[in-house]
Amino acid sequence: MPANRSSTRAPARPGCSQLNRVSRTRSLVGRRPGASATARRVPRQRPPMMRTLPDGPLSVRRLIGPARRAVLPCAPFCAMVPTMVSFFRRKKPPAAAVPATDAAPGARLDIEALAAAFPAAPAAATTTPGAESPAPAGAPAGAAAGSGTGETAGTTDAGSGDAAAPGAPGWRERLRGSGFARSFGGLFSRHPKLDDELLDEIETALLTADVGVAATTQLVDDLRKRMKAREFADANALLAALRGELVALLAPVAVPLQVDAGARPFVLLTVGVNGVGKTTTIGKLARRFKDQGHSLMLAAGDTFRAAAVAQLQAWGERNGVPVVAQGQDADAASVAFDALQAAQARGIDILIADTAGRLHTQQGLMAELGKIRRVLGKLDPAAPHEVLMVIDGTTGQNALSQLRQFHAAVGVTGLVVTKLDGTAKGGVVFALAREFGIPIRYAGIGERPEDLRVFDAQAFVDALLPASLGG
Question: Where does this protein hold GTP (predicted)?
């Protein structure tokens, strides 16, 4: 036995052939067919073209045939390649035609010839570094001066769209997409029959629009009593009754702000939670009072939010109103005190003081508002003459809790409901009117200064509900 072979055989695995049980030293045993002993691959049978043929002048030609010309592989694809390459090749722009001149190639053209050959391009508008761009039509005074002050978002005076139409059409245009209007859109057309099912649908729509449980219950109970008394002839009469109930609920609180001419200055303190639009509302109020002929002064009391002072200063520059500020992280009470002193010294008619937004659940921050009120009372016992709370119309029933806490801290005397032109449901206005009875001074239905409207109960209800079933 060779030395490199083991005398011990490997154990056979079940399922294998008998070839694994013997030695493979013998040739052609256990190998694949066609394999030689040297492991060189030799075909079993040569192809017909490679077989040895008898010698003869035409023996090979009989099988192979005459010589042929070389043929390109896949000729159609090769013909398409130049077309594809030319398609994806970037085309050069056509060269501008150079006007021909009669001058010799080596001659130099004079100025008149060059001017005729190359017409002048439109002159670009050049501005000097100190010049101001003209303000667009409809922009308030000072809009151009404030255009480069780097104010924050939300301080653009022109807004992103046109102002709403004056009167009731403007209210209807801006509030037709509110949740209240959508809830009552096809309610009466779907339920033209006077029954309890119609009242249930009205109750669901009022609750969905954030009118509140108490106000909704009162409205539906009154309508049910009148329907059982057969006061309504059809659904159109029920709609008119519902409109009358809503107007009667808002009429006592639709009281405009009256500036006391005897109080110089008339101090107006704005409060509210974060992000409701207090600073923007102050800028719009400044524009309104300025157009009415009042002299104004603003106090930048929001010293906590970043860029709040700069935002109010931008509004002041636009409206031509002085702003008293002390910078970031200053004491808000001291800012209000300095502003009241300056307003008294200059004989200003109206002083509007801004405050930082704060959550109504933070007792320490709410106590700071009481401090501002006490500091203003040292210079004028009647100040502030108006405490205006700004409420976001999209807040919902949480606005009731906010007003309750702010009213306990500083004694709110007026409300401004903003952002009613978007996806706000609008029903919170009815809940506020029934719960507190505090006058609603203004309503914001857009981004432009003209869109801060004096609250009108009749126009508000007309915008939310149609006058008739076919309206």
Answer: 272-279, 354-358, 418-421
Q: Residue 354 annotated as binding?
A: yes
* 128 belongs to an annotated ligand binding site: no
What is the fold of 266-460? Rossmann fold (3.40.50)
Q: Is 444 annotated as a binding residue?
A: no
Task: Determine whether the annotation assigns residue 471 to a binding site.
Answer: no
Buried-state track 96-123, b at ≥16 Cβ within 10 A, e below 16: eeeeeeeeeeeeeeeeeeeeeeeeeeee
CA distance 354 to 332: 9
Query: DSSP letter at 389?
Result: E
Token representation of residue 114: 């060059």
279 marked among binding-site residues? yes
Mean pLDDT in order along the chain per 10 residues (471 residues): 56 52 48 53 59 49 50 52 56 51 48 52 38 38 36 41 64 72 72 83 86 90 90 85 92 93 92 89 93 93 84 90 87 92 94 85 79 92 93 86 90 92 77 93 89 91 74 51
Q: Is 418 annotated as a binding residue?
A: yes
Asked whether residue 270 is marked as a ligand-binding residue, the answer is no
Domain boundaries defined on the chain: 168-253, 266-460
Residue 302 assigned to a binding site: no
What separation in angstroms does the CA of 175 have from each of 170, 421, 461?
A: 9, 5, 10
- Residue 157 annotated as lining a ligand binding site: no
Ligand-binding site membership of 356 (annotated): yes
> For 168-253, which CATH superfamily applies?
SRP54, nucleotide-binding domain (1.20.120.140)
Annotated binding-site residue? 355: yes
Confirm whether pTM is higher than 0.85: no
